[in-house]
Specification:
The protein contains nine helices and 19 strands. The chain is α+β, with helices and mostly antiparallel strands. The chain folds into two domains: 245 residues, Probable tRNA modification gtpase trme, domain 1 (Gyrase A, domain 2), CATH 3.30.1360; 103 residues, Beta Barrel (Elongation Factor Tu (Ef-tu), domain 3). Strands 10-11-12-9-3-13 form a six-stranded mixed β-sheet. A six-stranded antiparallel β-sheet has the order 15-16-17-14-19-18. The protein has a five-stranded antiparallel β-sheet with strand order 5-6-7-4-8. A hairpin with a 4-residue loop joins β11 and β12.
């Protein structure tokens, strides 16, 4: 059968296939844009088990299907700086930043974690499964830069016992280095599965970066020999994103995409002051859009426990049926006992407003969600 969708489907090290076999088969696959990003879940790991892992233990998420790039050379930092309002050329060695690359209009082109792995070398994990759109054309203005597909990929571990979990995968002598990491710092470690890896601490977890061979060996060890770490799929990740209180966990290209500016998704803090002299793709568009947002990334919580889960794209309406926006993500929240959602809403639809979506009543909130009253 002809693949008319031409989906991007990659599996470095065979991690996705091995997990499919070890955990009784994938329930279904998750697709973001044109990228098969990972498993929704597996038949032998129920959702309750995954939820307990991220709320009381440690849950591990495969991230190998993102787009990984190596950008190197004396102009590498300057090139990446030219693609985003958020500078990376000043990163200390081993440190990382979450970056939003922008279009000339000042909207979001791609998201990535950028790690400085050498004086003239950066690794990128691009969540949308593609290179930044202006990477190659902008590189033509620099002489000393190389852009290559990376041979390094990653998985990550979340949950209150994430530190102990990631330490259990490395040599005893290297565990203290991990414990000493601050947010967005990384270190090189020796793994119990053989070979070396890089462990990066983020606000909400630990990322393990390694070659496809080493990463696959570590993941198989995690699945078969570490019962205290639970493999988690994208169904659970959607719940985790809704409930996360540490960051606004928007997802590219759903909550965040080429139609949203940084100011509209709560990332305006990345944009330098108007008087900053540095030029980058989208600078003029962003400065023009400051203070004139067409929408904002809001939270919705169901008015009662019986409301169903809306679909991405469901309209959000006011009492008279007037259009206010649309749902971008949603999931039932075990913690709140009702469905939570993200939505793009009109600027005049503010927190506290009661709206309608998917046949139910919802209340508008900021995100991350604050403490909510008990559901009726």
């Amino acid at each position: 059968m002809q693949n008319v969708l031409k989906l991007r489907r990659v599996d470095p090290g065979g991690i996705l296939h091995a997990t499919d076999v070890l955990l009784g088969g994938v329930t279904k696959w998750t697709i973001l844009g044109d990228n098969v990003i990972g498993a929704w879940g597996w038949r032998e790991v129920d959702l309750d088990q995954q939820y307990r892992a991220v709320t009381h233990g440690a849950g591990a998420f495969i991230a190998s299907a993102m787009c990984y790039l190596e950008v190197s050379g004396s102009d590498a930092g300057a090139l990446l700086d030219a693609l985003s309002p958020r500078r990376v050329s000043d990163l200390p060695l081993g440190s990382a930043r979450f970056v939003l690359f922008t279009t000339p209009a000042g909207t979001v082109d791609e998201e990535a974690v950028v790690v400085r792995t050498g004086p003239e070398e950066f690794l990128l994990s691009c969540g949308g499964g593609k290179e930044p759109g202006w990477l190659r054309s902008t590189a033509e203005f620099f002489t000393e830069v190389s852009i290559l597909p990376s041979e390094v990929f990653s998985f990550n571990i979340k949950g209150p016992k994430r530190l102990q979990a990631v330490q259990s995968l490395v040599e005893d002598a290297d565990r203290r280095m991990i414990a000493d990491l601050r947010n967005f710092q990384s270190c090189q470690v020796r793994t119990l599965a053989g070979g070396q890896a890089r462990v990066l601490r983020s606000v909400i977890g630990y990322e393990v970066w390694a070659s496809a061979e080493v990463l696959a060996a570590m993941w198989r060890q995690l699945v078969t020999e570490r019962p205290e770490i639970t493999p988690c799929g994208w169904e659970l990740l959607t719940i985790y994103r809704m409930e996360c209180r540490d960051i606004t966990f928007g997802l590219f290209p759903v909550d965040v995409h080429i139609g949203t500016t940084l100011f509209e998704i709560g990332a305006g803090w990345m944009v330098p002051d108007d008087h900053d002299g540095r030029d980058y793709i989208g600078r003029e568009g962003l400065l023009k859009s400051r203070g004139s947002q067409r929408l904002w990334l809001a939270g919705l919580h169901a008015a009662d426990t019986k409301s169903g889960c809306p679909l991405v794209g469901d309209e959000v309406l006011d009492d008279s049926g007037g259009f206010l926006g649309y749902v971008t993500s949603a999931a039932p929240s075990p913690r709140e006992g009702r469905v939570l959602a993200f939505a793009h809403l009109a600027p005049d639809c503010q927190p506290g407003a009661v709206v309608h979506a998917a046949g139910s009543r919802w209340q508008v909130s900021t995100i991350p969600f604050p403490d909510l009253p008990a559901a009726p």
